[in-house]
UniProtKB/TrEMBL annotation:
UniProt protein name: Zinc-regulated transporter 2
Endoplasmic reticulum is among the record's keywords: no
Topology relative to the membrane: Multi-pass membrane protein
Keywords noted in UniProt: Ion transport, Membrane, Transmembrane, Transmembrane helix, Transport
Lineage of the species this protein comes from: Eukaryota, Fungi, Dikarya, Ascomycota, Saccharomycotina
Entry's localization field: Membrane
Basic and acidic residues bias (residue ranges): 172-181
Chain segments annotated as transmembrane: 35-54, 66-87, 107-129, 223-246, 287-307, 319-341, 362-381
Chief subcellular location: membrane
């Protein structure tokens, strides 16, 4: 008797209360349009992602500074809105579907997973910063010098050590003027805060500061941020492509919206890739990252068309998988959008200093709000 009670209780928890949709939404219509979606979304993704990079590299297509300014902060708004509207909300719907086992419905798992991801991102950043500080301390710098020289958000301690050794070898040939700079190097850094940007740490008055290697010093910290951003966006793009390929009656509206969705999302990613200081040995990295985003959704659409009759986005497996990955991606974009793109750019960078700083800051804020609002509006259809 007890065995039967336990079995029924277990069955109630682990099996769906209703039957999830085991069939695809694909209705056989708009076949040519579905094929064209591969190439149209490939083009829109490429325009959004590659245009900022091309503009920053080649003068013949270089956008005016105000265009790049708008693209940068418009993209920041798009990323933040994507986290809230295009990731967390669908994840909540997927994991809260009534056909799933009760264990998924007894708690807001989408919000919980997103929250855990956000704190995991912050923990990784704390650990990375701690490792850099420890390695710099081991290099023999004083506490004041460590604060003055170590931090370009994360930095690369090996570059500091290498530069320090080079500086020591050159000390015997320094002029009297350079020795005066050496004295000034012992002054405390006026910007010891963890979240100050590298430009505030690159004080040319400090002889051990690798002024001539600013690109290398900033590379690792910003690269990590960009990779995290791309990771969250790419996972989302996979499910977007699959959903479009097997969509039923809503295919036409979804198709139109996703063309702009992928372009705007690519613009947000592309501007961040373009503004990252890439060393000479890593010049291919931004192109590879842009290409990865550009190809993700078209490949997912092609795969979706190949399994159009067997892939069921409403099945229990698809709902759980999609919901979990959307939740993780939302946590990543929450952290990246709010900390990296909003707090760093507006509060801790030097971009808004000077006489017209407030005007530029308010302009950037309005552009960011417009990008977030437009992306949030697209969430009505996709």
């Amino acid at each position: 008797m007890l065995d039967k009670i336990l079995y029924r209780a277990t069955e109630h928890v682990l099996t769906p209360r209703d039957t999830c949709e085991a069939e695809s939404d694909y209705n056989g219509e708009h076949w040519k349009a579905r094929i064209s979606a591969i190439f149209v979304i490939l083009a829109s993704s490429a325009i959004g992602t590659f245009l900022p990079i091309l503009s920053s590299k080649y003068s013949f297509i270089r956008m005016p500074p105000w265009c790049f300014f708008i693209a940068k902060y418009f993209g920041s708004g798009v990323i933040v809105a994507t986290a809230f509207i295009h990731l967390l909300q669908p994840a909540s719907e997927a994991l809260g579907d009534s056909c799933l086992p009760s264990v998924w419905q007894d708690y807001s798992w989408a919000f919980g997973i997103s929250l855990m991801t956000l704190f995991a991102m912050f923990f990784f950043e704390l650990m990375a910063f701690h490792v850099v500080q420890m390695k710099v301390a081991a290099s023999g710098l004083t506490e004041e010098e460590a604060e003055a020289h170590t931090h370009s958000h994360f930095g690369n301690p090996d570059l500091y050590t290498k530069k320090l050794e080079e500086s020591e070898e050159e000390e015997t040939s320094k002029t009297i003027e350079e020795e005066q700079h050496t004295t000034q190097a012992n002054e405390p850094n006026p910007y010891p805060s963890h979240f100050q940007h590298a430009v505030e740490h690159q004080d040319p008055e400090h002889v051990h500061t690798p002024v001539n290697q600013k690109e290398k010093e900033q590379y690792y910290g910003q690269l990590l941020s960009v990779f995290i951003l791309e990771f969250g966006v790419v996972f989302h793009s996979v499910f977007v492509g699959l959903s479009l390929a097997v969509a039923g009656e809503e295919f036409v509206s979804l198709y139109i919206v996703l063309v702009f969705h992928q372009m705007f999302e690519g613009l947000g990613l592309g501007t961040r890739i373009a503004t990252t200081p890439w060393p000479k040995g890593k010049r291919a990295t931004p192109w590879i990252m842009a290409l990865a985003y550009t190809l993700t959704t078209p490949i997912a659409i092609a795969i979706g068309l190949g399994v159009r009759t067997s892939y069921a986005p409403g099945s229990a497996t698809a709902l759980i998988t999609n919901g979990i990955f959307d939740s993780i991606s939302s946590g990543i974009l929450f952290y990246t959008g709010i900390v990296e793109l909003m707090a760093h750019e507006f509060l801790y960078s030097g971009e808004f200093k000077g006489a017209n700083g407030l005007k530029r800051m308010l302009s950037a804020y309005v552009v960011m709000c417009f990008g977030a609002g437009l992306m949030a509006l697209l969430g009505k259809w996709a």
